[in-house]
Design the sequence.
């Protein structure tokens, strides 16, 4: 009987995670307008992992704004905080921790024990805090996200989308300009221990000032990133989200590519494969499964893809559009041979991880 129960719970847990939540998704958003510049399966539901903590932080910032708490407000660590899985600060039951330290612990160390502590401290229980998270998500327009915990540890019911994470990232920068700079904290020192930020792109990518990493095995490697740069004398912020990256190296590489795409001019938004001197360009039409028309601007058709395309596509054999686009590409890349042009339809499968 014991063996039966063991295998029952083992397999029920194993298969309780929906397979669709393991797939890759990404989105690139203009933070000023909310316009989506590029996406792959932006509304496909995924596991948020520790990107969940962005909502936890949003609620903390809201309470600070409402003067219900302050940065120096002390919270008592509850009994259910220390046992949670890492990452964590190593808090002990009954210990006192300030809101300031909880915020920095969430941003840098992605501390799960700090997440439980603030959830219980502000709402009385993790369950009540999750309800508040969901109410807040709906108010922000996050239509496909549901939260059951404040930290993002595995729960088959806790799901989000790349679009919703971009909406949340944008809301944090827009709604809380006084607190948002905390996301670029590189190292948090707490009780004699230094906790470096898990986002290793801080300081590596020009203009990056946040926002959050996330990982567990079934979720893959997640990252919400925000970069602000001066373009034509004005500040411009780009938000890039990757969910389900194969590992943090591939994820970070793709985030960097998305950021450069976001700041590029439409004519520059193309991707050249680094493994060959020839270039294979992927050109997306404005209508599903049809060739672009003469009314489609050439610049808007040039569409970057970061890896080998695994999508519905048809090769352009002979068409005026192909010749026209090849001339544009040749002019912009005079030293490289144009290998070919592929017409990609909007309905597409995953482009691979990273």
Sequence:
């Amino acid at each position: 009987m014991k063996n039966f129960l063991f295998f029952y719970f083992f397999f029920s847990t194993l298969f309780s995670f929906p397979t669709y939540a393991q797939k890759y998704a990404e989105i690139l958003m203009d933070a000023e307008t909310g316009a989506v510049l590029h996406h792959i399966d932006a509304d496909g539901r995924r596991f948020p992992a520790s990107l969940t903590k962005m909502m936890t932080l949003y609620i903390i910032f809201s309470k600070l704004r409402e003067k219900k708490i302050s940065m120096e407000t002390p919270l008592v660590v509850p009994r259910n905080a220390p046992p949670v899985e890492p990452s964590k600060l190593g808090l002990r039951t009954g210990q006192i921790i300030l809101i300031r330290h909880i915020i920095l612990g969430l941003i840098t160390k992605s501390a799960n024990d700090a997440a439980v502590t603030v959830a219980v401290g502000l709402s009385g229980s993790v369950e009540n805090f999750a309800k508040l998270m969901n109410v807040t998500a709906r108010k922000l327009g996050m239509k496909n996200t549901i939260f059951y915990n404040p930290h993002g540890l595995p729960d088959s019911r806790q799901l989000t989308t790349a679009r919703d994470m971009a909406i949340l990232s944008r809301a944090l920068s827009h709604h809380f300009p006084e607190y948002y700079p905390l996301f670029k904290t590189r190292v948090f020192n707490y009780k004699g221990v230094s906790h470096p930020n898990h986002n290793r792109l801080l300081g590596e990518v020009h203009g990056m000032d946040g926002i959050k990493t996330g990982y567990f095995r079934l979720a893959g490697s997640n990252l919400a990133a925000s970069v602000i740069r001066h373009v034509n004398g004005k500040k411009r912020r780009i938000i890039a989200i990757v969910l389900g990256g194969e590992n943090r190296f591939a994820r970070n590489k793709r985030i960097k590519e998305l950021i450069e795409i976001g700041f590029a001019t439409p004519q520059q938004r193309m991707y050249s494969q680094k493994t060959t001197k020839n270039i294979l360009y992927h050109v997306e039409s404005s209508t599903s499964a049809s060739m672009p028309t003469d009314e489609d601007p050439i610049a808007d058709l040039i569409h970057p893809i970061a890896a080998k395309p695994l999508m519905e596509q048809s090769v352009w054999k002979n068409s005026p559009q192909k010749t026209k686009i090849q001339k544009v590409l040749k002019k912009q890349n005079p030293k490289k041979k144009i290998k070919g042009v592929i017409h990609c339809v909007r309905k597409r499968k995953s482009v691979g991880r990273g």
User: Anything to note?
Assistant: The chain has nine helices and 13 strands.
